[in-house]
Specification:
This protein has 125 residues and is mostly helical. The chain has helices spanning 3-25, 31-124. Keywords: Coiled coil, Membrane, Transmembrane, Transmembrane helix.
């Protein structure tokens, strides 16, 4: 139920209660009878308002539960997607690390070979 509908219904109920109260006050009944009518009308209006409040509360609760469930589902989907992306990033980083290790090993091997060649060159001179 929209907020406007709830406000309209509340205004109608309030107007009806006020109108009934004014009508009872101008009625040619005794004070006891008039007070009983006012009390009866007030209780009726209170019950109607409580009923409307309960209905509105239930609707809001249902909407909140639906929104929470929808949010949890979207969050789960997002986390799952992020997990796959994180796995892809880790695989790419591991591949790059292996490439760097291979280059490092090659450079170290070339450095050792260059040192040996340098020593051989000095020894043969």
């Amino acid at each position: 139920m929209s907020s406007n509908t709830g406000n309209t219904l509340l205004a109608l109920l309030t107007g009806a209660a006020i109108g009934a109260g004014v009508g009872i006050l101008y009625a040619p009944d005794k004070g006891d009878v008039t007070r009983k009518k006012i009390k009866k009308n007030a209780k009726k209006t209170q019950k109607e308002l409580e009923k409307q409040l309960k209905k509105t509360t239930n609707q809001l609760s249902a909407k909140a539960n639906h929104a929470r469930t929808e949010f949890e589902h979207k969050l789960e989907d997002t986390l799952s997607s992020m997990s796959y992306k994180a796995d892809d990033i880790l695989v790419a980083l591991e591949e790059k690390l292996e490439e760097l290790r291979a280059k490092n090993a090659k450079l170290q091997k070339e450095g050792v070979v260059n040192k040996i060649e340098s020593k051989v060159a000095k020894a043969t001179k």
